[in-house]
Amino acid sequence: MLDGRISELPDAPALRGSYAAHAKGVLRHREGLSVTPTDNKGAEAAEKWVALVGRVRDHQDREAFAALFRHFAPRIKGFLMKSGATAGLAEECAQDVMATLWHKAHLFDPTRASVATWVFTIARNRRIDALRKSRRPEPEDLPWGAQEEPDQQEVLELAQETDRLGAALALLPEKQRVLIERAYYGDLSHSEIAAETGLPLGTIKSRIRLALERLRHHMT
Amino acid sequence: MTIRHHISDALLLGYSAGQLPEAFSLVVATHLSMCDDCRAQLAAFDAIGGSLMEECDDVALPDMCLEATLSRLTSPEMGGSPPRTRRGVFPAPLVDYVGGGPEAVKWRPIGMGVRQAILRTAKGASARLLYIPAGQNVPDHGHRGMEMTLVLQGAFRDEADHFGPGDVELADEDLNHTPVADFGADCICLAATDAPLRFSGLLPRIAQPFFRI
User: Fewer CB atoms inside 10 Å of the end CB: C or N, chain A?
Assistant: First the structure.
């Protein structure tokens, strides 16, 4: 979607490397911070993915799954190749990740994560399995499922917050963003990872914190 | 339970990125099970990962991949495996490593009433449980690398601060400390280091290779 937009810019062929990435960031930034609904593309797309995962969960809808696959599988593959996987391994893992999305759709909570975030966590775990052959202990499960439908307003707000975070990430100074990317691609050891991301994490954190409080409240 | 000492952002980012040695991940996962504040902060770091993946240059898959994946899909595991739950003062991730609750730990004495149990994790860092009787101190020690200590029961105090249930102390090479357990309750901690501990006294130093601490 965004790639298409950039290629529509008159000077698109001249956009290279970090400048292109920056331009892409500015586009995203405007979308993310804008209050007019027409410009709210990132969050709208995020809501669409949430709805598709809902169809997978409730109706085992294969068309919805195919749409999710076409969007996310190539990104998972790209992400894993940047993390050092061969094309073949990345392809195999991308398929595993998407199959996991199908089988675990009932565990997805759109008030705590976007679909992209959820897919990232599945891909990360698959990468640890495939490339590092080690375990990553997971925190205690929070029960999810047998409850009422998530509040649509909360889902939207989380989507908007996620979009804003993505925009802020794209606007970071090059050097800083590269460091964060390297950390997530597995290029940095834990002792090389710096604490300061320079990203406004406070708002998304508070939102998720509230969602957790509500969940705990339901449990008791 | 008010947690005052949390997991640092650097460690949460490392955990989110999947870059922590297993022993550190175990301490982080155990703390996250006790602390929704850090759980939410981790979700924020996961969202950064999601954004990076969303913006990642996509690499097309051969057409047959979608077909192949569709053919693998079975009915979703609605119930799935039973939720992992805590046992006593051990949150679920720790229960997985111990194979049960506090009663299942195979403690080994390491002197002065202090006991420990090494947990099996991948190379690069080691994890162990420590049992410090109320009022007792752990031998004075420094570290070559980094040490994370999470309190599960009781509390301890050292040169840096006071640590109660759920609190995490992060110690680096500069900290030489003598943790002393509070009176009132025996203290149980989960600790991870990426280098062997360095004890100041001669005897503990000789004993160290045998106890793998």
Answer: C
What pLDDT is stored for residue A28 in this prediction?
41
Task: Calculate Rg over the CA atoms of chain B.
Answer: 20
- Residues B21-62 have pLDDT tens digits of 999 999 999 999 999 999 999 999 999 999 999 998 999 999
**Angle subtended at Cα A92 by Cα A91 and Cα A98, rounded to the nearest 5 degrees:** 90
Is residue B70 in a domain? no
- Measured CA to CA in angstroms, residue A110 lies from A104, A133, A152 at distances of 13, 30, 9
Amino acid (1-letter code) at residue A114 = S
Residues 27-86 of B with CB under 8 A from A: 28-30, 32-33, 36-37, 39-41, 43-62, 65-66, 68-70, 72-78, 80, 83-86
The domain that holds B200 is classified in CATH as 2.60.120.10
Per-domain residue ranges for chain A? 43-219
Query: Is CATH 3.30.2350.10 correct for A43-219?
Result: no
* The pLDDT value given to residue B184: 92
Q: Flag whether residue A17 sits within 8 Å of chain B, measured between CB atoms.
A: no
pLDDT tens per residue across span B85-142: 899 999 999 999 999 999 999 999 988 899 999 999 988 889 999 999 999 998 766 6
Q: Would the pLDDT of A12 be above 70?
A: no
Over the stretch B58-101, which tens digit does the pLDDT of each residue have?
A: 999 999 999 999 999 987 666 566 778 899 999 999 999 999 99
A-contacting residues of B 150-189, CB under 8 Å?
A: none
Q: How many domains does chain B have?
A: 1
For residue B82, is it within any domain? no
Give me the half-sphere count of Cα atoms (radius 13 Å) on the Cβ side of residue B106.
6
Q: DSSP string spanning B9-35?
A: HHHHHHHHHT-S-HHHHHHHHHHHHH-
